[in-house]
Amino acid sequence: MAALRDWKLGWIGVGRMGTPLCHRLIEAGAALGVADTDPARLAPMAAAGARPAVTAAALAEGADILLSMVPNDLALLSVVTGPGGLAETMRPGQVLIDLSTVSPAASARVAEVMAARGADYLRCPVSGSTSTAAAGALTIFASGPEAALDRCAPLLAVLGRETLRCGAAEEARAVKLMVNMVVALTPAILGEALAFGGRLGLDWSAMVDALSKSVVASPLLAYKAEMLKARDWTPAADVDLVAKDLDLALAVGQREGAPMPLSALARQFAAAYQASGEGGLDFFRVATWPERLLAPNPR
Question: What are the residue boundaries of the 3-hydroxyisobutyrate dehydrogenase-like NAD-binding domain, all occurrences included (predicted)?
Answer without folding.
Answer: 172-286
